[in-house]
């Protein structure tokens, strides 16, 4: 028997990849849509991969989930209805539902298998959010839901995979147009837009669509260790002035919310919109 460790290699980019040691393989199954694996890693705890691409980890998911939820919700200041596209592991719902002012959350996940195995193998991500009465879980294609819904939302969070396979349709101009139609006045749309240093086209294409739709279209950044290759970008689209909420007002909103985040602070919120030159150049 070999004592050599087993490693998972994630060849996400043409010229660059990362490797994560598999201490214990906990789940390995191919669903109708994708291959799901969960394994244990000494640094990151439990790791979820879809088609050998890291989706989330027990160790660093807080960065991603806090920044895609607290930034738009606290910037909005009065969000009561939130839509999550994707997010089947429950981490995004977990953070949205920490806001007691949020009255209703609709979560649209294409793959029921992701939800069921996340409840069993990644319960530390959802932390009971699937049982919250404010959550309405819809198993459906996110793009189709967005096109057909008559509901309106104060904040829409697109927690998608990268624009390949099932996630590709969530990066189209028509999808963003349908999202805007489903927003209330002053609503905010935020999206996962990859690592700009490695995936510049992904950000550029989204920003081009956002600029055609919103008076304020930009992105903000956060560093998620397992989303390797530099800071990660989150698209921001709104017709409001919410991006420019003053620091003291944000600090007040955080205090009133009672949140105790591990990454997000009012200061980080403001600073996240300060973009390095190479990222600015990716925005048309």
Secondary structure class reads alpha/beta
Oligomer: single chain
Mean pLDDT: 92
Tally of individual helices: 10
Q: List low-confidence stretches.
A: 163-168
- Largest beta-sheet characterization: 7 strands, mixed
Identify the overall geometry: globular
Q: Provide the spatial order of strands within the biggest beta sheet.
A: 9-8-7-10-11-13-12
Strand count: 13
Beta-strand content: 25-35%
What Rg, in angstroms, do the CA atoms define? 18 Å
Order of helices and strands: EEEEEEHEHEHHEHEHEHEEHHH
Keywords:
284 residues; alpha/beta; 10 helices
In short:
This protein is α/β, with parallel strands linked by helices. It has ten helices and 13 strands.
Provide an overview of this structure.
It is built from ten helices and 13 strands. With 284 residues, the protein is an alpha/beta fold. It is globular and about 55 Å long.
Blueprint of the fold:
Layout: E1 6-13, E2 16-22, E3 24-30, E4 35-41, E5 45-50, E6 53-57, H1 61-76, E7 81-86, H2 91-96, E8 104-109, H3 112-121, H4 123-126, E9 135-139, H5 142-148, E10 153-159, H6 173-181, E11 183-192, H7 200-213, E12 216-222, E13 232-238, H8 247-257, H9 266-271, H10 277-280
């Amino acid at each position: 028997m070999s004592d050599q460790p087993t490693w998972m290699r994630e060849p996400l980019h043409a010229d660059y990849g990362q490797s994560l040691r598999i201490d214990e393989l906990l789940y390995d199954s191919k669903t109708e849509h994708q291959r799901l694996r969960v394994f244990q890693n000494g640094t990151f705890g439990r790791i979820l991969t879809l088609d050998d691409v890291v989706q989330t980890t027990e160790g660093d998911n807080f960065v991603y989930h806090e920044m895609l939820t607290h930034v738009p919700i606290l910037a909005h200041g009065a969000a009561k209805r939130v839509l999550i596209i994707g997010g089947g592991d429950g981490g995004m719902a977990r953070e949205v539902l920490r806001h007691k002012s949020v009255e209703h959350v609709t979560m649209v996940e294409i793959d029921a298998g992701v939800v069921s195995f996340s409840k069993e193998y990644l319960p530390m991500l959802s932390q009971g959010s699937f049982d919250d009465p404010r959550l309405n879980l819809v198993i459906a294609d996110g793009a189709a839901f967005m096109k057909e819904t008559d509901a309106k939302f104060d904040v829409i969070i697109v927690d998608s995979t990268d624009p390949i396979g099932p996630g590709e349709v969530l990066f189209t101009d028509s999808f963003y147009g349908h999202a805007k139609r489903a927003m209330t006045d002053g609503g905010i749309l935020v999206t996962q837009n990859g690592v700009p240093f490695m995936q510049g086209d992904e950000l550029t294409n989204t920003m081009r669509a956002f600029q055609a739709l919103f008076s304020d279209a930009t992105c903000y950044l956060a560093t998620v260790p397992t989303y390797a290759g530099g800071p990660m970008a989150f698209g921001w689209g709104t017709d409001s002035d919410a991006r420019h909420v003053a620091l003291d007002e944000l600090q007040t909103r955080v205090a009133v919310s009672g949140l105790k985040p591990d990454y997000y602070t009012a200061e980080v919120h403001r600073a996240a919109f300060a973009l390095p030159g190479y990222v600015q150049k990716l925005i048309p």
